[in-house]
Structures are given as structure tokens and as C-alpha cells.
């Protein structure tokens, strides 16, 4: 099957979840005086839900352009790490694929792609297919919310607000590789929880991510591993991914 | 045009979009320059798990008791089916039932 389609299929649960909070977010944006055109431009050019939410909270005339930029930088700092972690997926690919593909990276399709990559390999088309589906779902739901206002039923009544946590918990589990992960994961979780209380924006994600990964490096150095470094296997895009396709 | 974009909106959106894109692509290009073995490799290999956990754990804790019930339902279904859609459905149903029973 085509990798684009596979990427889309794998992201369907997350697109449903994204539409649920996209609708709520659209309503909020309308109440804040954000026009549908401004919303559309943010959706297509930024494509970053939490940063858009922060922006909308700051959306009152005269617009504090510089402060908005600073807030977006803080909220989206995690994308620097997310981008770095996609290196194995884009390894050896031409620059244009990286330049185009990276715009369509959201938390959701990143997580699905990383899990698929660990479980047998994947390629940029899988990531980008998922990103396109999320972009359509996100844009459609936010614009609908923005135009329709409060006519959308409360999504928390249906547990839709929990869908994101549910799927991400499952994806986290699929990344577990063995007891070597225990300490780095504990460090990451601890730093993230502490950072959420102490740091602005979404910096806690970057803190947990960096801290946990550094812990893994430290363990490695202390232990002085005997085994040689892993060999990189290039995934062939045309090959079938073995096993289930619904990760 | 005047009604669709208020004063400063275009600048704010372009600035935010440019910064976001620079972070996304910048991370990837930086990682391309890191050594392909040793501590840097170990760091990059560990990042997916630690980022995902940092994204998930605070949110799960905020969901409280109902979140724990939903999470339990998720884990049960995930280990049985390995299917994301069923996992999500189980989590949502768990949270839904809890809310209906205890909050009307």
C-alpha cells in the first residue's frame, strides 16, 4: 500500500481527536475576535495547536506582535527536539523533502511515525500523509468552530478531550524497548511534571525530553558498553511494513 | 481585506509561522550534523520516548481519578489489540462512564 495512505490511516484516531478540540478552539477564536481568514492563515502557515491557542489568548488590538512571537517561540521550542528526533526517518533524503515534510510535523503524526519507525521502519511520505490528514481535520474544524460559534456541543461530555491522552499513552508504551529505558523515562516524567509547574508555555516538554535523553547518555557513559554501535538500516519505501498497520 | 485581517495580524501570523517552521526544520538539520554514533546518537535515540512521555504524563495526571480509569482502560485494550482506534475508544468510554455516573 502507498505510504501516504498508510500514514493517513494510522493518524485517523488522532485526526478525530484533533477535530474535537479544533472545534472548541475555533469557537474560542471567534469569541476572541479572530476572523476566519486570520484563523485559516494560522492553521495553514503555523499548523501548531498549542501555539495558536496562546496566540489567540493574546489577540486583542493593538496586537503585541513581538510578545506573540516570543510566546510562540517558547511554546514551540519542543519542535526543535521533535525535528532532531526525526533524523533517522529523513536520513539520506534530499533537502527538498526535509524542507517540505517538516512543515507538516505535528505532535500527533510525529508520535505515530516514530512508533512506526521503531516497529519496522517508515519513510517521510508516511509522516507527511499523516500531516496532511491532520492539517485538513484541524483546518476544517477550527474554521467551522470560528464561523458557527457556540453551536458545537460540549466535547468533554463525550470524553473527546481525553482521546489525545489515551492515544499518546498507547504510543508511549509502543516505544518501550526494555529496562534500559526505565531511568531515562522516570527522569523525563519527573522533569515534565515539575517543569509544568515552574516553567512558562510548553517548555516542560523540552525540559523532560532533554533531561531524560541526557540521563540515557549518562547511564551509557557510566556503563561503558561493550557492544558496537547499532547499524543504520535504511527502510525501503516500497516495501510492506510487516504486521499490523494500525499503529 | 481590512475586515479580514486586523492591524498587525499579518505580521504576527507570519512571524509566528516563520519561527515555528525554523524550529521544526532547524532541529532536523542540526541532528543531521551530529555524529552518527556515541553519546550524540544515544541522545537522539532516547528523545522520542522522553518527549512523548513529557507530552503525556502531565496531561494524564491532570485528568484525575477519571483519567486514571480511562488510562487503565486504554492500557488493557492496547495490550490486547495493539490497535490505536480501539485504545482511544476504550479511554473515551472509560472517562464517559465515570462522568455520567458521578457527575450526572
Entry keywords:
heterodimer; A: 247 residues; mainly alpha; 2 domains; 13 helices; 0% strand; globular; B: 104 residues
Overview in brief:
The complex is a heterodimer of chains A (247) and B (104). With 247 residues, chain A is mainly alpha-helical.
SS summary, helix count of chain B: 4
Q: What general outline of chain A do the C-alpha atoms trace?
A: globular
**Would you tell me the overall average pLDDT of chain B?**
87
Termini Cα gap of chain A: 15 Å
Largest sheet of chain A: none
What does this protein structure show overall?
- The complex is a heterodimer of chains A (247) and B (104).
- Chain A has 13 helices and no strands.
- In chain A, helix 3 runs antiparallel to helix 10 (124-148).
- Chain A is mainly alpha-helical and 247 residues long.
- Chain A folds into two domains: 3-175, no CATH class; 177-226, no CATH class.
- Chain B is an all-alpha fold.
- Chain B folds into two domains: 7-62, no CATH class; 63-104.
- In chain B, 84% of the residues lie in helices and 0% in strands.
- Chain B has four helices and no strands.
- Chain B has helices spanning 9-33, 39-62, 64-81, 84-103.
- The longest helix of chain B is centred in the N-terminal third of the chain and has 25 residues, at 9-33.
- At the A-B interface, helix 2, helix 3, helix 5, helix 6 and helix 7 of A face helix 1, helix 2, helix 3 and helix 4 of B.
Q: What's the helix and strand layout?
A:
The complex is a heterodimer of chains A (about 250) and B (about 100).
Chain A: H1 3-10, H2 12-31, H3 36-45, H4 49-57, H5 65-75, H6 78-85, H7 87-90, H8 95-101, H9 107-118, H10 124-148, H11 160-175, H12 182-198, H13 203-223
Helix pairs in contact in A: 1-10, 2-4, 2-10, 2-11, 3-10, 4-5, 9-10, 9-11, 12-13
Chain B: H1 9-33, H2 39-62, H3 64-81, H4 84-103
Helix pairs in contact in B: 3-4
Amino acid at each position: 500500500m502507498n505510504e501516504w495512505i498508510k500514514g493517513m490511516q494510522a493518524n485517523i484516531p488522532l485526526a478525530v481527536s484533533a477535530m474535537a478540540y479544533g472545534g472548541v478552539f475555533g469557537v474560542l477564536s471567534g469569541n476572541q475576535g479572530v476572523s476566519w481568514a486570520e484563523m485559516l492563515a494560522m492553521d495553514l502557515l503555523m499548523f501548531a495547536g498549542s501555539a495558536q491557542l496562546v496566540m489567540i489568548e493574546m489577540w486583542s488590538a493593538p496586537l503585541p506582535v513581538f510578545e506573540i512571537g516570543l510566546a510562540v517561540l517558547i511554546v514551540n521550542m519542543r519542535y526543535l527536539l521533535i525535528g532532531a528526533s526525526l533524523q533517522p526517518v529523513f536520513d539520506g533524503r534530499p533537502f527538498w523533502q526535509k524542507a517540505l515534510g517538516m512543515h507538516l510535523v505535528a505532535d500527533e503524526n510525529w508520535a505515530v511515525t516514530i512508533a512506526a519507525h521503531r516497529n519496522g521502519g517508515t519513510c517521510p511520505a508516511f509522516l507527511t500523509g499523516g500531516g496532511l490528514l491532520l492539517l485538513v481535520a484541524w483546518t476544517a474544524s477550527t474554521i467551522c468552530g470560528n464561523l458557527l460559534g457556540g453551536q458545537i456541543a460540549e466535547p468533554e461530555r463525550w470524553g473527546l478531550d481525553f482521546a489525545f491522552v489515551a492515544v499518546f499513552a498507547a504510543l508511549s508504551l509502543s516505544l518501550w524497548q526494555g529496562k534500559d529505558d526505565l531511568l531515562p523515562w522516570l527522569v523525563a516524567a519527573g522533569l515534565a511534571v515539575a517543569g509544568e509547574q515552574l516553567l512558562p508555555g510548553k517548555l516542560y516538554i523540552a525540559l523532560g525530553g532533554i533531561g531524560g535523553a541526557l540521563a540515557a547518555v549518562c547511564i551509557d557513559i557510566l556503563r561503558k558498553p561493550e557492544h558496537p554501535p547499532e547499524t543504520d538500516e535504511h527502510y525501503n519505501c516500497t516495501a510492506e511494513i510487516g504486521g499490523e498497520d494500525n499503529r | 481585506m481590512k475586515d479580514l485581517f486586523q492591524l498587525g495580524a499579518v505580521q504576527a501570523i507570519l512571524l509566528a509561522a516563520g519561527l515555528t517552521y525554523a524550529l521544526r526544520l532547524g532541529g532536523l538539520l542540526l541532528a543531521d550534523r551530529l555524529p552518527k554514533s556515541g553519546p550524540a546518537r544515544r541522545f537522539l535515540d532516547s528523545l522520542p520516548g522522553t518527549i512523548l512521555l513529557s507530552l503525556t504524563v502531565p496531561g494524564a495526571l491532570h485528568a484525575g481519578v477519571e483519567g486514571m480509569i480511562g488510562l487503565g482502560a486504554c492500557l488493557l485494550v492496547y495490550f490486547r489489540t495493539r490497535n490505536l482506534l480501539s485504545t482511544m475508544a476504550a479511554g473515551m468510554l472509560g472517562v464517559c462512564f465515570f462522568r455520567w455516573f458521578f457527575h450526572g
